[in-house]
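re: the backbone from monday

yeah here it is again, tokenized this time
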């Protein structure tokens, strides 16, 4: 079995997107295709293109259904808060609140939380707008650890719970922005390599829109489910708890939830990332190898 054409079945169950699964299938020869079809108890007769089409169709139906998050042990719900300024579209956002709520999938209950404020370094002083929006004060972040330390603390917390070792897990967010924008740029700013857990995630808002045919924010989703928002809007930990409630309600309602988003869906190549860094005038930052500009 060539490593390029390794089992598409096992790859898909690890949460790779449909486009990558189809790419693996396209690289398979007849022997590999027949082996995968045989595992699925499907016919192995036909020409190469017929075999590929048959296998792809199974992944789009049966296999994506099998990849429902109920096979996971835990889901980590996350919602960052970041530095911001009113009417400043190109503001270099830095994460200042890092909250994670841990859901046990078998019981649909919150079993633990991770929460930390983060000291920004590009713009250490919070704007009045940022404090008004998030409720985060200057004292909260000035006394906090910087992002690399907080990320290490999160990873230690994940290790304590056996996430990725003893237990299968995935992260969940409200939309693509937390990992696609905030976390990506934060890793570039601080020269850190992106952890594997941040490359694919459950987009709760997209699942809600697909199921109920209504695209709205956290407050709107809660209202449609008969709940009220608990806590302070734009408080990271309160937002995260409410997103967790939405996700647990959908799971209890037997909505099919899977890992439905990731960096593969977005233009996050080295060139676009370097352009962002250049726009923020921080070329002197120690960037990781994944963030270097193209030759």
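seq for it, each position gets an aa:
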């Amino acid at each position: 079995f060539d490593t390029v054409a390794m089992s598409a079945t096992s790859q898909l169950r690890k949460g790779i997107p449909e486009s990558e699964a189809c790419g693996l299938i396209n690289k398979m020869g007849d022997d590999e295709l027949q082996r995968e079809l045989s595992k699925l108890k499907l016919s192995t007769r036909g020409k190469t293109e017929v075999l590929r089409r048959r296998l792809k169709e199974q992944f789009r139906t049966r296999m994506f259904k099998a990849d429902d998050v109920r096979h996971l042990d835990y889901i980590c719900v996350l919602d960052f808060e970041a530095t911001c300024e009113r009417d400043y579209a190109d503001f270099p956002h830095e994460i200042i609140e890092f909250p994670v709520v841990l859901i046990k999938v078998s019981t649909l209950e919150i079993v633990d939380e991770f929460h930390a404020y983060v000291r920004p370094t590009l713009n250490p002083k919070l704007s009045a707008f940022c404090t008004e929006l998030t409720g985060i004060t200057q004292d909260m972040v000035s006394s906090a650890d910087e992002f690399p330390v907080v990320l290490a603390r999160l990873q230690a917390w994940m290790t304590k719970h056996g996430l990725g070792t003893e237990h299968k897990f995935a992260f969940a967010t409200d939309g693509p922005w937390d990992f696609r924008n905030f976390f990506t740029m934060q890793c570039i700013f601080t020269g850190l390599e992106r952890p594997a857990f941040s490359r694919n995630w459950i987009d709760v808002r997209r699942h809600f829109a697909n199921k109920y045919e209504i695209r709205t924010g956290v407050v709107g989703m809660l209202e449609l489910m008969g709940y009220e928002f608990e806590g302070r809007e734009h408080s990271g930990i309160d937002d995260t708890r409410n997103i967790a409630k939405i996700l647990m309600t959908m799971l209890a309602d037997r909505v099919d939830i899977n890992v439905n988003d990731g960096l593969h869906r977005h233009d996050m190549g080295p060139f676009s990332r370097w352009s962002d860094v250049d726009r923020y005038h921080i070329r002197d930052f120690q960037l990781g190898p994944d963030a270097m500009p193209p030759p």
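Residues 48-66 form the longest helix (19 residues). The radius of gyration is 21 Å.
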